[in-house]
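Problem 12. The chain below contains 876 residues. Write out its predicted structure in token notation.
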Amino acid sequence: MTIAPARPTNAGHQALGGPGMPAGRTGPGAYPWAIAAAISLAVCGAALSLNGVLRGWNWYWAAMTTVLVVGFTLAALRSVRAQPLLVTAGGFVALVGVLTLTFFRSSSFLWVVPTGATLPDLDRLIQRASETVLAETAPVAPNTGIVMVVCAVLGLAVILVDALAVPLGMPAASGTGLLALLVVPAMIKPQSVGVWSFVGTAAGYLLILACSQWFAPDGRLQGGSARSPGLMRRAVLTGAVALAATLVLPLAIPGFDSGTFPQGSRLNPWGASTGLNPMITLGNSLRTPDGSGRITYATNSPAPLYLRSVTVDNFDGDSWGPDDRPGSRVPLDGRIDPGYPVLTDEQVRLVTAIDAGSFTSPYLPVPYAPETVNGLGGQWTWDPATLSIKGTDTTTRRQEYLVTSAVPKLSAALLAQSSGPVRGIPDLFTRIPGNVPDIVRSTAQTVAGGAGTPYQKALAIQKYLRSSEFTYSLQSPVQGGYDGNGLSVLADFLQQKSGYCIHYASAMAVMARLEGIPSRIAVGYAPGRLTGATVTVAGQGTLPEYEADARDAHAWPELYFQGLGWVPFEPTPSRGVVPDYATETSAPSVAESLGNNDGLIPDTAPVPSTTPSATAQAVPGSGGGSAGDGAQPMPWLLGTAGALGLALLAAAPHLVRAGTRSRRLHPKRPDLAVPLAWSELRDLGTDYGLPPGDSETPRAYAARFRSALLGEPDGMDQDAHGAVASLTSAFEHHRYGRPGGGGFRVGGLHPRQVHGSAPGQGSGPVHADPAVQDIPAGIATVEASLRANAPLARRWAASWLPPSVTRRLGLLIGAPFRAAGRAIRQKGRAGARFGPRRPTSEGRATAGASRASVQPAAGGPFTPAPDDGGGRAGGR
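Solution.
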């Protein structure tokens, strides 16, 4: 007899295949490559914003290579239909491989496989990157360490954006990964991320949205699926709204400076919780418009003081950096000894009470040179070479302490007499790199080469830098691309003659070394301003209070003179106070015309009392007018971000389930409405504790669903019963009926009666409610009935921990283990082939006769087909 060919079970889905694909099959088509190109464009565009954080463009090629390798590895794995978890794992493997090839080739196996020898190299590069972040100001030199970290971050960003856009089905949320890349330059660079970076990132993001709509209209990976002009219009509208929001919302959101995004605005979410890291944050602190990082101090000095946090003395040609010398630091539990003789007859001893307030740094701001520090909490150490004080697992935040300090009473005459050779100073303070640009050497020779004594050379350099040829500017170095403190930056600064304190201090320190004078750079706060309040200090009486904040962040050079020690100078125009000994006329100097230094020394400044008094013990920061800084926003910001992250993680199953339901109930193609609605009904049953069986027919599952989860068919749940019965009939017609037959409207259920109840439901017809004429309304009716008949715990779990989502997640996580198990079983079967010999033809004949003896009788349901010489039954 002739048997008709079986109808494919996926009939009606042939349109899902792309052109040229076999009917009934779906394939990824161009989608993986298109989405990979869009993601790569977006991430590479975001990486453009790092120009200005990193100097030049040499780093960009390594970064772009990393992005492209990771992105197109994900595309290649997805094109061969790998499991989503394996695709993401392959992205991580590709990232490790390209980083190894780029940065650890010499210590790897076959150039791409890291080995045990790679770990020390990795640790060295991470340490180098950490030193760059802590010790340099943007734009930093693109050394190997910082470039490696940038490439790793960009590769991880590709994997994150891809995971959000493809397997999680949330392409709009992929913008969060791109935004994370833009935060760093938005905080550091005055010009924010830049126009071209913003354009590239926005274009890539819009392409991600477009690809997700163009290639996957029903939310699943579909290659070459039908394109809908309506989808493209919605994608364009979504992108336009997002673009308008980025341009307009920053005007009303706190944390942005004036202007529109990206040009003219700078994200500054850290608020007042600032710490002065050496060199790196000076420019940013000076550009901050508010007075964050406020310190107050009261002193018996007749003039306001510089507060020195750390000494930057290590100069390798690329940048200045601090050398903490951890092996030689001394615990702060006694007197601090400068370690060199001071030969002056008179020294000025000062007492200063300091309240660090919101200033957060491991380095303690104190006047130079400290002798004792009392009142600190935590463990602190000091460096004998520089007298800088650093906390051990503690910071300056909310510290109140009393400092006694002593400096020689200096004068121009005394400094002029100090012309002897320098002795007892480490070579670190006189070291000159070999790559000093010619303009730096020639300028030092021209300016100071003709001076006789070290003091005259120092005055000549300071006078040159403070002359009218130079201007103080926070923006010129950034706009000119030479914001930093390396030798190449210094050469540009001497040509442009515009910069801020970092540039002036670096220039004077380097030129002093070229002229044989030991030098280093001090980082801390310029003197600040009177607050009008007073502080009572035991033994000193009532002292005037000063304040300094981030706008007073400052760097200045210190030069060493034999017998006098380290002497500060002030080469930066319009900043700080030029010491009396550093003026040509040796006359007292007042602050110049920078806004935050106005009124630094009032005309009628009170003269502090130096006589002991029987007042109460010192309470730094008290005294009537010293207001606290109030609650700082940074802890609240971090706490809020953490809480939102946990809430988002907890709500993720609910959000995924809601997104899946929305895609199913609003399909982009009418012929998919019924099968997607049936999948939604099965997932509803799973969520409410009734998963379908593997071999269960749709009608049998619908009967079990109605009897176990819904109420009485003739009661309040009649509409839900009718919706389930109608959907079951529609799905059976879609799956098993004649292709193209009528009887049901595509995209909605026909409002006819569904005669005959399902098995197990009793007799009598079940009528479909005329109100339930479309699938979304029918599914909503079923869900309402499920919620009404389920206990509270079941309703909560179905909403927030739906088993239909969690079970798929478990299957996804277990996929690699199942694949490994299959591989092991296949190897076992392959090994069995080489076991006992197979039966001979005689044995096979005997076995065949034996099997034939137990077959059912002719005419039964399992009657064997007649032997046709090895052919299949039915004469095919």
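Discussion. The radius of gyration is 38 Å. Students who got a different answer should revisit the alignment rule from Section 12.3.
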